[in-house]
Amino acid sequence: MSRYDEMMFTPAVEARQAGIGAKGKFASRYGQPERLNVGADEMDFLLSRTTLYIATVSETGWPYIQHRGGPLGFIKQLGDTQVGFADYRGNRQLISAGNLDKDDRVSIFAMDYARKNRLKLQGHAQMLSVEDNPELAAQLTLMDHPAPERLMVIDIASYDWNCPKYITPRFDTGEMTQLIGPEISRLETRIAELEAENAALRNEGPQK
């Protein structure tokens, strides 16, 4: 893996940083030995995502961003710094796949809106044939899903945790269930108790 700052802080970027007095302030952060490996926190976070934003580079030089998502667990760990997922039939434009045929570099945002966490990743990606990689296809294919058209494998080259500032919290149905599920269960139990009490009172009939 590479140091994030050495990969991303180009001379033009450093010139901008110098203009606000920020140049050189990140060296200790990115120079730590553990930053040259994907740690358990990073991998666990990535594997628990249900959505990714993946940017590729076109032959015209324009970046292209593609959303990929699925149920919890659709991203699989394949190695210490390698992940993959099954790529299913989409809109048939195949822009990301075509871009990767010419330039395998990707930039990825992995978001946790509920907790305002964001993991940025740089890497090298491949779109592999299902027919030529049957064992990998079996590993990445999701249960109760149709057969994938391709397999995407990403080798992580660097990463950085991003500031939570300005991330608007959003919750999917699973997160909402975790958040308010206990209170709903309590209310359902209380409603059942009140309905039982009401039924018992009706059965007693009017008092004479």
Q: What's the structural domain tally? A: 3
Secondary-structure element series = HHHHEEEEHEEHEH
CATH architecture of the largest domain: Roll
Query: Can you say what the CATH homologous superfamily of the largest domain is?
Result: Electron Transport, Fmn-binding Protein, Chain A
Mean pLDDT: 91
Largest beta sheet: strand ordering: 2-1-5-6-7-4-3
How much of the residues is beta strand, in percent?
25-35%
The portion of residues assigned to helices is: 25-40%
Count the E strands: 7
Q: Looking at CATH, which topology of the largest domain would you report?
A: Pnp Oxidase, Chain A
Largest sheet: 7 strands, antiparallel
Write down the overall geometry: extended
State Rg: 24 Å
SS content category: alpha+beta
Distance between the termini: 85 Å
Poorly predicted runs: none
Our count of helices gives 7
InterPro entries: Pyridox_Oxase_N, Split_barrel_FMN-bd
Protein name: Pyridoxamine 5'-phosphate oxidase N-terminal domain-containing protein
Domain Pyridoxamine 5'-phosphate oxidase N-terminal: 44-137
Organism: Ascidiaceihabitans donghaensis
Please outline what is shown here.
This is Pyridoxamine 5'-phosphate oxidase N-terminal domain-containing protein. This protein has 208 residues and is of the alpha+beta class. It has helices spanning 4-8, 11-19, 27-30, 40-47, 95-102, 134-140, 173-204, and strands at 51-57, 63-69, 76-79, 82-87, 105-112, 117-129, 150-162.
3D architecture notes:
It comes from Ascidiaceihabitans donghaensis. The protein is an alpha+beta fold. The chain has three domains: 1-35, no CATH class; 37-162, Roll (Pnp Oxidase, Chain A); 171-208. 35% of the residues lie in helices and 28% in strands. The protein has seven helices and seven strands; from the N terminus they run H-H-H-H-E-E-E-E-H-E-E-H-E-H. The chain has a seven-stranded antiparallel sheet with strand order 2-1-5-6-7-4-3. The protein is extended and about 90 Å long.
